[in-house]
Design a protein that fits this description.
- With about 450 residues, the chain is α+β, with helices and mostly antiparallel strands.
- It has four domains: about 90 residues, Uridine Diphospho-n-acetylenolpyruvylglucosamine Reductase, domain 2 (2-Layer Sandwich), CATH 3.30.43; about 110 residues, Uridine Diphospho-n-acetylenolpyruvylglucosamine Reductase, domain 3 (2-Layer Sandwich), CATH 3.30.465; about 110 residues, Alpha-Beta Plaits; about 100 residues, Alpha-Beta Plaits, CATH 3.30.70.2740.
- The strands form four sheets. Strands 14-11-13-12-16-17-15 form a seven-stranded antiparallel beta sheet, with helices on both faces. A four-stranded mixed beta sheet has the order 1-2-4-3.
- Helix 1 runs antiparallel to helix 3 and helix 14 packs antiparallel against helix 15.
- The longest helix has 15 residues.
- The two termini are about 30 Å apart.
- The structure holds (2R)-2-hydroxypentanedioic acid and zinc ion.
- (2R)-2-hydroxypentanedioic acid binds next to strand 17.
Length: about 450
């Protein structure tokens, strides 16, 4: 083995430098199975000091690095393109005690969302971000991608929860900002710069996270509506009348069919509908009556089913949350994660099938997502060798509707060539200057975010 591998073994322990192909394999392919590459080796540091030492050693050797959390990313940003040292942060999984007065907690980058949620809830608080990959997604990856999920409506996305971070620059310098002060105007906000930077500027090792009130009483409505326009009418009614609204999601009949077959779920309604909306309310007291009253006075509602018990909540949410796994069981999807102004949503949904069919006649699009933000997940199945053309056609359509090419999954390797559709040449040039200042040798996550 080369000098670098020997040096890494000395830094993190021989058992945490994986060079054998079988041991590397689980780290080398992303969740979708679309992105895969060979790592030079996988390194598993356990502390910030070890991460710093690993980065220093890689910098001295001129070795490029790819950073990985729970490997739940969907844009190919956490797996190697080929030949990088893969730094897994899974062992940085320390959770400190909840500070109940500040309503904050410090968590290691490798802590899973599910563990963070359980920890916060045991202290009578909650974490503001929730998403279907909660059992594997980690704090560091969620900060790096500025993850969104199902409660952005209520609490904002990941960056809104982050009061500070500890992070390691590519030269091994450790930046520590974990005091969590509620007001602190002392210069550039490096924490917020790193949120959404996709591991291209520094490696987040710990985070000071804000917590939110625990709202134990929940009610969910699964609502059948005629289509996207009716779904938006229902959203408008929910937004104006439901003070406790915590989620508003959408899916369509073809997604429902896939999910029902995959998760063996019954048809939710006697009659099929054009679109389905999930509304969730959460409070200290049961919000069921509030939801029922809103549904009964909204003309867009064709049919609805409401639950507030644990089993019923899980059952209704599973129609929406099983989409990703059901799609994956049907094939390797081309995943597009876009956001348009709500006024453009109906037109986008209408024009989408024709746009895809024009470049990939055999492909089909499963559409679902976060209605409140106009954030649709367009999962194209059967694109085969036309995946790039489908991506190009759909992202151009989205840009024409004043939308963004990445709403919450990030740009990664998957969308980097299309970044100019969403950011001006001046913005991209400024981003490159920031990248060059913090990572002059271009060693961190090369090929991710910024177009080649
Ligand atoms: C979701 O909202 C996730 O369920 C995954 O962002 C979306 O699989 C997808 O495309
Ligand atoms: Zn999503």
């Amino acid at each position: 083995m080369t000098d670098l591998e020997d040096e890494l073994r000395a830094l993190v322990g021989a058992g945490h430098v994986l060079v054998d192909g079988d041991l590397r394999a689980p780290y080398e392919t992303d969740w979708t199975r679309r992105f895969t590459g060979t790592a030079r080796c996988v390194v598993r540091p356990a502390t910030t000091g070890e991460v710093a030492a690993v980065l220093r050693a890689c910098a001295a050797a001129g070795a490029p690095i790819v950073v990985q959390g729970g490997n739940t990313g969907l844009v190919g940003a956490g797996v190697p393109a080929g030949g990088e040292v893969l730094v897994s942060l899974a062992r940085l999984d320390r959770l400190e005690p909840v500070d109940e007065v500040e309503a904050q907690v410090t968590a290691g980058a490798g802590v899973t969302l599910e563990k963070l949620q359980a920890h916060a809830r045991a202290a009578g608080l909650d974490f503001g971000v929730d998403l279907a990959a909660r059992s594997a997604a980690t704090v560091g990856g969620m900060i790096a991608t500025n993850a969104g999920g199902i409660r952005v409506l209520r609490h904002g996305s990941m960056r809104a929860q982050v009061a500070g971070v500890e992070a390691v620059l590519p030269d091994g310098t450790v930046l520590t900002r974990l005091s969590g002060l509620a007001k602190d105007n002392t210069g550039y906000d490096l924490t917020q710069l790193l949120a959404g930077s996709e591991g291209t500027l520094a490696v987040v090792t710990r985070a000071r996270l804000r917590l939110v009130p625990l709202l134990p009483a929940r009610a969910v409505a699964l609502v059948a509506v005629a289509g996207t326009g009716a779904a938006l009418d229902l959203l408008a009614a929910a937004r104006s009348r439901l003070a406790t609204l915590s989620a508003a999601e959408i899916f369509y009949p073809d997604g429902l069919d896939l999910v029902r077959a995959y998760a063996r779920l019954p048809a939710p309604f006697g009659e099929p509908a054009g679109a389905y909306v999930v509304l969730e309310c959460a409070g200290r007291t049961d919000p069921t009556d509030e939801i029922l009253e809103t549904l009964s006075t909204c003309d867009a509602v064709l049919d609805a089913t409401v639950a507030s018990d644990r089993a019923g909540l899980d059952r209704l949410w599973s129609y929406r949350e099983s989409h990703t796994e059901a799609v994956s069981a049907a094939g390797v999807p081309t995943k597009l994660d876009v956001c348009v102004p709500l006024g453009e949503l109906s037109a986008l949904v209408t024009e989408l099938p024709g746009t895809v069919a024009a470049v990939a006649p055999d492909a089909r699009v499963i559409t679902f997502g976060h209605l409140n933000e106009g954030n649709l997940h367009l999962n194209v199945l059967g694109a085969g060798e036309r995946a790039e053309q489908v991506t190009d056609a759909v992202l151009r359509l989205v840009a024409a509707h004043r939308g963004t090419i990445s709403s919450e999954h990030g740009v990664g390797r998957a969308k980097a060539p299309w970044l100019p559709l969403s950011r001006t040449p001046e913005e991209i040039a400024a981003m490159r200057r920031i990248k060059a200042a913090l990572d002059p040798a271009g060693l961190l996550n090369p090929g991710v975010l910024l177009p080649a």
